[in-house]
Specification:
125 residues; 5-stranded parallel beta sheet; globular; Rossmann fold; 5 strands; alpha/beta
Amino acid sequence: MLLKRIILRNTDSFETTMQKWADSNKVKSEIFDGNNELSEIADAVVLFHEDYNISKENASIKDLFSNNAKFSHSIDVNGTLMASVSSFVFWLENHKPNSVLIIGDDKLVENKKFNTYLNQLGSRL
């Protein structure tokens, strides 16, 4: 399994969707409890976005990981589906993170391409 454990920051709609996806693909997931720093509990961060529209909060989290010499990956759900999925799978194979913080805006769950992306990703793990 390329994706061993995902960490989610809270239980908003994006995180709930990711948790359901993780459960259906037998990927361990947990909600961030705030006892440690995000960059201490995750080896890497993955940022989902639409057309590079990224909230300041998510951009600052990605910067936090970069500033702490942690890996990061961005996924534009409106990009080319197969290339984007392959790129993420390749990234997972190369970096082999044990735990990945997954972040994204709640409006992503309304994007049909987001669900298609998750389905394709699940078949590649």
